[in-house]
Design goal:
about 525 residues, alpha+beta, Alpha-Beta Plaits, 17 helices, about 65% helix, elongated
């Protein structure tokens, strides 16, 4: 056993043995770095092979098939890289890469069916479906905008399910808008010229949303994920624009333009393959507050899909008014349900904050500030009905001995059991609060000095006649109590000071007893 350096019990001499966290971190870094290099190397090798196929075979009979096959391999590699990044991510990062897996799965299906089309002739509706998948494969990625950028919980959230339904409705509306309605007047299975402008507007709006979200965030992880995705989508929409408006419109499969599509596949492969080196959230990620402007952006993003659906509604309604109305209705129901759930969670959060501000975290009783406020209100109320308010200050006997002998966990258990016993022994309309470390304050409205004495004795007997279970042992605990009764003219500080003096008198007199403060001035009741 290595000798520990004297003077610092937490300092260990250097040796060949490492702590478990250090071992896992070192092995993870080396192995995953090697794996990342292999993935990136494979992607670059496929890109180089694609360039050779294009410049050597071009659009010859075998060229398009090889070009599509290489792109299919790149898409499969992107899919595996996203799955790998999801496995090494947590919370928002995991959700993001899972959505990326769904998106690239759609792309791989479309590319796979399209590659087979080089050998098997397809009917027009199949080619139209392939073009639809190619145009909107990024739909699941857009759902990442709905994720909470600061505190995404583990598991699948109900809001995420609603957003998924909203995204599905958007895809249906997009199919009707970009393919079904134009096909009624234009015989084409690709995007009709009449819908190019709104397509690029929606695509560009999505890219801008990612860039805006990356700017209005406190999280380093979110800034990197959303920022890179925004840049990637800008490059993707630019490539699509070159395909429809630029030199790509006149080119066939197997031409040089295919290298741009392949480059768009290599970029996310590199990001996903190296993500584990950056997916460690800074300490501020989990505690940094969301600024007002970031909160506004967060709440505006869920309106993205409904807004786009409304933009497409008019054109769809010209062809199928009933179908268009049904799409908008379902989208409205999803948005309304999301709003109601968000409002309910806001109310729950407000209630939790209110309870946290007024209750003791350990015992669940009123905290010091809250119980003193209650005493103030009861004194004011006593002025209206001419009564007195009883104030009882209770202290756990020999509590320091419990902590020193059995540990602080046993002491916490004693305090919790005491809190339960006090709330059981008092009247339903009395208030009990944790006044200090092991001190409790009981406010008994409408009690005279004699009635307060009787209540204090009942509390003392209730505690003394039961056993409080600690962490290991059964601990027989007792209370010392001091009490006083005051009216509306009484100052709270003086009232509490008088009860405190009576409490210490009970302590000095042998503990496990009740002592009044008879010298305190109080109202006399008839």
């Amino acid at each position: 056993m290595p000798e520990v350096t004297k003077g610092n019990p937490y300092h260990y001499p250097q040796s060949n043995l490492a702590l478990p966290s250090e071992i896992s971190e070192t092995v993870f870094t080396k192995n995953e770095m090697t794996s990342s290099r292999k993935i990136i190397g494979m992607a670059l090798a496929l890109l180089l092979a694609h360039a050779m196929v294009i410049f050597m075979l071009g659009d010859s009979p075998i060229g398009p098939a090889l070009s599509d096959s290489i792109q299919l391999l790149l898409g499969g590699l992107a899919l595996l890289s996203c799955m790998r990044a999801s496995r090494y991510s947590d919370r928002l990062g995991s959700h993001f890469w899972q959505l990326a897996v769904v998106a690239y799965s759609i792309w791989v299906v479309a590319q796979g069916v399209g590659t087979l089309g080089n050998f098997i002739p397809y009917p027009d509706y199949v080619r139209g479906l392939i073009n639809l998948l190619f145009c909107f494969w990024f739909g699941p990625l857009a759902m990442a905008l709905f994720l909470d950028p600061e505190h995404e919980p583990k598991g699948i959230d109900l809001l995420l399910i609603l957003d998924f339904v909203q995204g599905t409705i958007f895809c249906l509306a997009a199919y009707l808008y970009f393919f079904y309605v134009p096909s009624l007047s234009e015989a084409s299975t690709d995007l009709a010229h009449s819908v190019w402008a709104p397509y690029f507007f929606g695509y560009g709006l999505l890219a801008a949303a990612f860039l805006v979200r990356s700017f209005f965030t406190n999280s380093v992880v979110v800034r990197k994920l959303f920022g890179r995705m925004g840049i990637f989508l800008v490059c993707s929409v630019s490539t699509d624009a070159l395909y429809y408006y630029g030199p790509g419109a006149a080119l066939k499969t197997g031409a040089w333009f295919d290298l741009l599509w392949s480059g768009l596949l290599v970029a996310p492969i590199c990001v996903a393959a190296t993500w584990h080196t950056q997916d460690a959230a800074s300490p501020d990620d989990n505690i940094a507050p969301l600024h007002t402007r970031g909160l506004i952006v967060t709440q505006l993003v869920p309106l993205l899909y409904p807004l786009l659906i409304l933009v497409m509604f008019t054109r769809i309604a010209e062809a199928r008014i009933t179908l268009a109305a049904a799409v908008v209705l379902v989208s409205f129901l999803c948005s309304s349900t999301r709003l109601l759930i968000t409002h309910q969670r806001l109310l729950q959060a407000q209630e939790a904050l209110r309870k946290e501000a007024t209750h003791d975290g350990l015992t669940g009783l009123w905290n010091r500030v809250a119980i003193v406020d209650i005493l103030q209100r009861e004194l004011l109320r006593s002025g209206r009905n001419g009564s007195t308010t009883g104030v009882i200050l209770a202290d756990v006997d020999r509590f320091k001995f419990v902590n020193d002998t059995h540990g602080h966990a046993a002491g916490d258990a004693v305090l919790c059991d005491m809190a339960n016993e006090l709330t059981t022994a008092v009247r339903p309309y009395d208030s009990v609060g944790r006044y200090g470390g092991e001190e409790f304050l009981i406010v008994a409205p409408g009690c005279s000095l004699e009635e307060t004495w009787e209540l204090a004795e009942r509390v003392r007997n209730s505690v003394a006649n039961r056993s409080t279970s600690g962490q290991v042992h059964k601990l027989a605990m007792t209370l010392s109590l001091g009490f006083v009764a005051g009216g509306p003219e009484s100052e709270i500080e003086s009232l509490l000071h008088a009860a405190d003096e009576a409490l210490y008198l009970a302590k000095r007199s042998g503990r496990n007893r009740v002592e009044p403060q008879l010298a305190f001035p109080r109202l006399t009741t008839a």
